[in-house]
Amino acid sequence: MSATVEDVGTDRVPVLTPAEAVDVARTFAVRLAEGSARRDAERILPAAELDELSASGLLGVTVPAEHGGADVSAEVLTQVVALLAAGDPNVAQIPHSHFVYVNALRHQGTPAQQAFFFGEVLRGRRLGNAQSEVGTAHVRDYRTTLTPAGDGTWRLDGEKGYSTGALFADWIPVLAHLDVDGPLHVAWVERTAPGVTVVDDWAGMGQRTTASGTVTLHGVEVDDSRITPFHLTFEGPQTYGAFAQVLHAAIDAGIARAAIRDAAEFVTTRSRPFPDAGVERHADDPLVVHAFGELELAVRGAEALVAEAGRAIDRADADLTAETAGAASLAVAAARAATAKASVDAASRLFEVSGTRSALDSLNLHRHWRNARTHTLHDPAAWKVQHLGRYALDGTLPPNHGQL
Prior knowledge:
There is one protein chain. The chain has helices at residues 18-42, 47-56, 74-87, 89-93, 96-108, 111-121, 240-269, 286-318, 322-354, 367-375, 381-394; strands at 145-150, 153-160, 171-178, 184-190, 196-199, 214-223, 227-229. The chain has 404 residues and is of the alpha+beta class. A 7-stranded mixed β-sheet has the order 5-6-2-1-3-4-7, with helices on one face. A hairpin with a 2-residue loop joins strand 1 and strand 2. The longest helix is centred in the C-terminal third of the chain and has 33 residues, at 286-318. Mean pLDDT is 95; it is low at 1-10.
């Protein structure tokens, strides 16, 4: 049986103000960047880095104030995530679902569930995810089920893929149908519960150390008190989907910023100028300067759209209607489309401006492109543009689901 509120200890991590959260993320990102290339090249999972992240207090910044948290805005959280992603986008992506499911608890958790899980988060505990299912006909098809087991308990069975964060989690929120054909609910299971198996079988070309592998669930016992509704989230206006999506955009923005940073370092310290440029330093070649200007322009624009998307979510949460929720989704769609393009372009043009030696495998600069190309596949950017186009043409608000 799961722990109760009374069973939880009193150890707590720091509660950060919004300004402190940004400062802590900026400092931590510098340390993340120092080891990111090696971790990627040797596929060293960032267990120590995630422990440091938990201890920093950053994972608790979205806990509501009435539960003792900092309750930072979506705009501030996007800054935190983008900074972490510029250091190591793998470390930034792993707690993506942590923040999303803290948000889910805000909207659908009972007071007792909120007290317990927010308390866990404020003690540095991590939430993972077991949401997506592979081999189904539709991305929103779920075969994982909760079936009655008697005495207020349920049996959880299924298999999940792309389970980013699960390997490092203390708690794994699992999306499942209630009683086979019933509505979707979230089952909150402990990572070490009997019947839970997390397999590190992620073999993607990018985001290699996110351990986004498989979770199998066989006869996992789940108490009534550890189940929250998911379907109710989308029965009215909501920013749940926009919140999840803007964090993906922040990760892409961080990848783009890291690509420019490393390209600039390479060009100013290692690249040789092309003879036709007539300059002593490759960094003084006007074509190179212009290329960096174009990259900086694109990335600044993408970062600005992420910030505006965060503000749009905050405005909608303060006055939630179909119109404000739709406006938030459109702002996030613009941010997602812009950051997807900026991250892939910056990570590709890195080699164009740096020259032949930048392609050496030993430097591992190609990790930026692999990370960008892999992470931007989460949702088709073209559909974001479609929704923006429909709104521009006839004022149609985007669909009300978790991808917007």
